[in-house]
């Protein structure tokens, strides 16, 4: 009988201790012993501060925070210095981030060179094949890189020049020679215009120090100017505007930010929405709902024709009704 009582007392002690343990878990606020939600650490490396890239990064940030309010997002800017992207990425890697968002082609190139393990999502990238050196690019990189492209239909942008300025015989293209995405756009637009019998003059610059001189020289040789989606050109839009407005040079731009300062018209995308799409891709990756190596590059589906009313008035251009004025 004593043995039975001892056994019963022992079982009661065990049950009491187990109950205390469970009560402790509930008091700690972790859902009755459930594992706490992971706090994700994300690094954003942005090449340069200007309206388009700022909007894309903000869209990404907002989309991720909507799903993961506690996410730790470290947003760093390379201030237009391509070489600065690498140490920013290295810092993210040392911090053990779960994902890197690389905003602009040089940022994607730096991130891809630095790690083959951490998922990388790019945005504001025109052509991933050119950026990553992938021939016959199919839309899926097969490595730890995916993201969104800001590529608008380049043939339609080139045709804008001929539609709005029909007397044009020679077109100049102003771009940064250090940007792979710009070289790709130049190639496509040049081929299209030359196919229409238009002469094309390239004006390449390396940084902000020579852009005014290159732009000035180029404008002396041409009837109209095309500026592609180029990060360095965007960051120097005021400098370009000082030249083209003084010369009343008809200018078509690859995106709205540049056009708002120095262009007559553009076929543009919404960079904030593009960033949101990139953020939604990040959410899928972090939730384990997708694999980075098989995630297709996504594109903005509905580019919009926009015009700069002040500059069009200066040039005496009549804009078709399907164009929207830049606010």
Task: Throw out a few tags for this protein.
2 domains; 6-stranded parallel β-sheet; Rossmann fold; disordered N terminus; 327 residues
What would you say this structure looks like, in words?
The structure is a single chain. The chain has helices at residues 2-27, 51-67, 85-94, 105-114, 128-132, 154-164, 180-195, 211-219, 231-235, 237-246, 256-262, 271-286, 309-315, and strands at residues 41-46, 72-77, 99-103, 120-125, 145-149, 170-176, 199-205, 224-227, 251-253, 265-268, 298-299, 304-307, 324-325. The chain has 13 helices and 13 strands. The model is unreliable at 1-34 (pLDDT under 50). Helix content is 46%, strand content 19%. α11 links the parallel β9 and β10 (265-268). The longest helix is centred in the first third of the chain and has 26 residues, at 2-27. The chain is an alpha/beta fold and 327 residues long. 44% of the residues are buried. The chain has two domains: 41-150 and 270-296, Response regulator (Rossmann fold), CATH 3.40.50.2300; 154-268 and 304-325, 3-Layer(aba) Sandwich (Rossmann fold), CATH 3.40.50.2300. The N and C termini lie far apart (91 Å). The strands form two sheets. The chain has a seven-stranded mixed sheet with strand order 7-6-8-9-10-12-13, with helices on both faces. A six-stranded parallel sheet has the order 2-1-3-4-5-11, with helices on both faces.
């Amino acid at each position: 009988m004593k043995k039975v009582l001892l056994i019963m007392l022992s079982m009661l002690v065990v049950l009491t201790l187990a109950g205390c343990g469970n009560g402790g878990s509930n008091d700690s606020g972790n859902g009755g012993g459930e594992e706490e939600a992971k706090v994700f650490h994300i690094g954003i490396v942005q090449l340069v501060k200007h309206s388009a890239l700022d909007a894309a990064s903000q869209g990404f940030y907002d989309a991720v925070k909507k799903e993961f309010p506690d996410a730790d997002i470290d947003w760093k800017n390379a201030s237009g210095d391509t070489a600065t992207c690498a140490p920013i990425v290295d810092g993210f890697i040392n911090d053990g981030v779960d994902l890197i968002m690389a905003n602009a082609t040089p940022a994607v190139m730096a991130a891809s060179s630095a790690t083959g393990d951490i998922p990388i999502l790019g945005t504001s990238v025109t052509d991933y094949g050119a950026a990553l050196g992938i021939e016959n690019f199919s839309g899926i990189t097969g490595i730890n890189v995916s993201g969104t492209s800001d590529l608008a239909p380049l043939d339609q942008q080139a045709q804008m020049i001929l539609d709005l300025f029909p007397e044009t015989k020679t077109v100049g293209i102003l771009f940064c020679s250090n940007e792979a995405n710009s070289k790709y756009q130049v190639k496509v637009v040049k081929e299209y215009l030359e196919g229409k019998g238009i002469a094309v003059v390239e004006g390449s610059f390396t940084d902000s120090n020579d852009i005014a001189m290159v732009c000035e020289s180029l404008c002396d040789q041409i009837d109209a100017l095309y500026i592609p989606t180029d990060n360095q050109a965007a960051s120097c839009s005021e400098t370009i505007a000082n030249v083209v407005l003084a010369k009343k040079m008809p200018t078509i731009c690859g995106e709205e930010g540049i056009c708002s300062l120095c262009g007559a018209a553009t076929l543009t995308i919404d960079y904030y929405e593009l960033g949101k799409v990139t953020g939604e891709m990040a959410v899928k990756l972090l939730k384990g709902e997708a694999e980075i190596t098989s995630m297709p590059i996504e594109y903005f589906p509905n580019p919009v024709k926009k015009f700069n009313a002040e500059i069009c008035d200066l040039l005496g251009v009549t804009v078709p009704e399907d164009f929207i004025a830049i606010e």
